[in-house]
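Re-running the complex after MR caught last week's input typo. The corrected sequence lines follow. Everything else is unchanged.
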Amino acid sequence: MSKITTIEQALEFVQENMTVMIGGFLGAGTPERLIDALVNKGTKNLTCIANDTAMPDKGIGKLVVSRQLKKAVVSHIGTNPETGRQMNTGELEVELIPQGTLAEQIRAGGAGLGGILTPTGLGTIVAEGKEVITVDGREFLLEKSLKADVALIKAHTADTAGNLIFYRSARNFNPLMAMAAKVVIVEAENIVEKGQIDPDQVMTPGIFVDWIIKG
Amino acid sequence: MDAKTIIAKRVAQEFEDGYVVNLGIGIPTLAADFLPTGISVILQSENGFLGLAPLDGPVADVDLVNAGGKAVSIIPGGAVFDSAMSFAIIRGGHVDMTVLGALEVDQEGNLANWMVPGKLVPGMGGAMDLVSGAKKVIVAMEHTTKDGSPKILKKCTLPLTGKGVVNFIITNLCVFEVTPAGLLLLEIAPGVTVDEVRTNTVAEFVIKPQMCTMPIV
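Corrected-run output:
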């Protein structure tokens, strides 16, 4: 079965009220073609798990501006004034999570772990309502793992088996999210035949990838 | 010398050869321009690489940005990785020093730099992980707010980024060390008096007997 598909077919897997992980860091490594198509399609009430909400005209920021998100689970919203505005008016729920915690929660979600123990956030409002666990005399916060219905991923190169190579700082959350969602859709700048990526160079094994569209 | 340059030059003197360092946006990043002769450090960028360097040509690579989203370059011998690895480096104690700005810092080493409730809520990004994991945490900031209000307090009033995490505070007026007994005034900037520091600081501090002038030129 070929994993190569069209944007339209791939986005059939993104339905209202779903939780969607989207790769990228301030837009670098975000699948812009998938985002643009999702904006055009207008699927609403999405919960988005991502590092940040980018800028109003870039990456995940476009989904904020088009009011398709009901909740954003992110580490940073400072570069997108529209996110702050919608948060203040109550239109958008924003859950802020320390970036390293968010990365590990997603990794844990894909790795079959119930959560992680981290010192990050102890003594701050991040710790409110969370369990503190003492290990060998040192305190840690229990942060539960995160999973999603769909992950939208950006890769530099994909082979037809779904093996992925990322490029420079566009890697960021993409390999982690590729492990943590039921359906993983990859926007790849380059698509090559099986065997054209050396197994030692693979950053995300193809078994995690369901669908590939040309970026 | 303007306030930012004083701070950046003094911060740069904290660099030791071979240090892995994460610099926040703004004044902290400026410190890299004043590396002492013979000292080289490896800059970590929390969005996923080691070997951060300024953009070295006119052509920007859209896929190579710093944690502020600005185009940068990567040194020969640099390394790129995902966000889990990036924060394993940060949280795991593999970063020797991090330098961050602050909205408030207090005499117990508490830091607040990620939100002003009801006004400004950018989010913590990687700051909470950085202060919990880096071996040395330096706050680099102008001593007071733009309207002259003190930022070095007895107790932070804003939501904390980290509790008891700050080791040194470097401002345009002075250098404080955060000790278990409270703040210790180590240095004052050229031309600045202890009285001036006291007037602009709410926190209590003790003057180190060997206090000296900031060695910056």
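None of the earlier attempt is carried over here. The first strand of chain B starts at residue 20 and ends at 23. The longest helix of chain B spans residues 3-12.
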